[in-house]
Known about the structure:
Layout: E1 3-8, E2 11-16, E3 25-26, H1 31-37, E4 43-47, H2 51-58, E5 63-74, E6 77-83, E7 86-88, E8 91-93, H3 100-112, E9 119-133, E10 136-148, E11 163-169, H4 171-180, H5 183-191
Parallel strand pairs: 1-9, 2-4, 3-4, 5-10
Antiparallel strand pairs: 1-2, 5-6, 5-8, 6-7, 6-11, 9-10
Helix pairs in contact: 4-5
Amino acid sequence: MQIYKVFDSKSEIVFSAKKSISNSININHLSEVSKFNKINKFRFNYTTSNPLKSIQSWYSDCKFIEASGGIVIRDKKYLWIYRNGIWDLPKGKLEYLEDFETAALREVKEECGLDSSPIIEKLIYISFHTYKENSKKIIKRTHWYQMIYSGSENVFPQADEGIEKVEWLSLKESTLKSKESFKSIKEVWNSLQI
Length: 194
């Protein structure tokens, strides 16, 4: 069953084919979100037979961007980047005619200065989040992969992308960093089957 969560400003909107039984509010249209936000309600569920098509329809006024990234594992440590004051996972936009897996490998290697490419084990999550860029609203869909890396543990941040640090962190450290990161990154981290 397809289930997607969109992180839209402060809100989390689950698009699924089945009604949610969690503590979320069932809604019928995106315009309802701001009404509930005013009374401090931020978790929503929208039931639809085609969740992806519904996201595209609801956010038709947004520019749709495709991205890809990964959780990279090396000797029971996980690769994290520090960008713009926040711990994050390596990811980036797809280039022209690039598929999600190729983009994920390229972005991880570039952003972290790896000496060789990791190996993708599996797709673990697809995230959606919105943001504004030059007053234009964007919705970004990111495919996240679990990857194994056996190259050098030396890493180098891609400074021209605003990355200040790249570090291999333990499971405990990674879990803590995920809680300090964006809600979508916490969700990606929690999807990892360890």
